[in-house]
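Reagents: none. Just compute today. RNA polymerase, sigma subunit, SigV.
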Amino acid sequence: MRGRKLEKLLMDCVTENQESIYRLAYSYVKNKEDALDIVQDAIHKAFLSIDKLQNKGSIKSWFYRIVVTTSLDFLRKYKNMHVMEDEILESFIPGQNDTYPNLDLAESVNDLPEKYRTVIILRFFEDMKIEDIAEVIQENASTVKTRLYQALKRLRISLEEEQLKEVHPVE
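Predicted 3D structure written out:
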């Protein structure tokens, strides 16, 4: 009976947070189909390991950790394959409006080492609290705060360098 209750909790969690779960996967792979595959794979993995869940109150952070891990596994597997963001790809279609999203910021976030990128994505894209991020990445809150500070510092430096390149192009 315990298994059925946990499965129901998992399905409720996935249903209630489906948009945020998809966004989390998409923030790693930048491709709609791959993000959907990751979410589906994460759900499958979660059902297979549902009995390993110690605290049913932490099912959301447990599942988010599975999504992050599955996303990172996907990126490692297809490391040499460069996936173009759907929005950029669509901008090449004739008749589309010219749009220039803030590519410097997106590139800078993607260029961060994995441990920094994860805290940035969870904090600012998923609007998670420090304590929740700590639970997802299985670190203490002070480590999350330090990584967040270091990640923001790296982003600031990276963006400043990009601005300098735009102002003073190297010939």
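Confidence is low (pLDDT under 50) at residues 91-101.
Action item: order primers for follow-up constructs.
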